[in-house]
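quick one if you have a minute, typing this from the bus. theres a chain ive been looking at and ive put its sequence and its fold in token form underneath. please have a look and point out which stretches look like helix strand or loop to you. anything you notice is useful, everything is just below.

***
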Amino acid sequence: MTDHPHDAALAVRVTGLRKTYRAIAAVDNLTMTVPKGGVHGFLGPNGSGKTTTIRMLLGLLRAEAGTMELFGEPVPQRLPQVIDRVGAIVEQPRFFENFTGRKNLALLAQGIGVPINRVGEVLEQVGLGPRATSAFRTYSLGMKQRLAVAATLLKNPDLLIFDEPTNGLDPQGIHEFRSTMRALADSGRTVLVSSHILAEVQQIADTVTIIARGRTLAEGPVGTLLAGAADPVRVVVGDAAAAARVLTEAGLTVQPDAAALLITRAEAAVHPAEVARLLGVRGLWVSELSVQRRNLEQLYLQLTEPGQQPAGHTLFEPPTGPGGRPAGPGAPGQGTPAPGTSGQGTSGPGTSEQWAPENRGGAA
């Protein structure tokens, strides 16, 4: 990394971003602020606009409205001046199957003008030194993803962007990739990682932006966001359907959780004694009752309750630049990824939003 003493305090600033496909808004007035240093989770269901946003930020798609900045530089206008400070993996990277990991990276280093000695350094950094001379086709999926990370590190970037990097990895691969992202952030870099599994990202993220339907729901430090969310009460009762009706009639929000119900209230905390009393007077007796630890998934459910505002819940300093300004006709369209990035194909918002459940071997 290179010192840049005149940098803005933010690695990424996005304001009023918009992108439509056939009159459907994939990204709709989206705001995102990513502080320098640490891991920032960009979280939302499948189809919520995460990949579209990242591709616009990298100049792979043209924004219809809004402003974007990388380290204080407006993009796409000054993307060529700042792109060497950015490494990105967007969707599945490609390498030569029969070449070794070292040879794949050596060819890439030669192509982007990086000294060849960087190859060995980045392979060690991602833990692939012992397998550097093995053919790429022999790598596990987790090792292939780590080789992709090594490729992004060749330029020694300040910002790393990973779009759903652990899709398809087994639990061991997910753990290894999480550790890699945390180590990169601890070395002083900024890591922006998108995911649709909130519980996984919560384990490593310092700050997050949560979106749905192309709009920002909330963003800020994880601890601060969760401190403002009510702890849900988890209850197990014999007739769950009847219990749900009783609690809903009392003005509480009820979400199924396997054999249990999670109980929250939009404006205030729910007390276990209150739940037990409401059910007891109706002859519904509780077999389990506990307060659950707050997490990002519960925050998301709370933010999307009827009557909640769908955007603008921000705990960072509000962006100060002019909003709603067109990205400009000079923005690159779909095409070849910028140097040091990997991006292949993008699709419109043809699929509905979908969260993955917790505790699965999916994206982190």
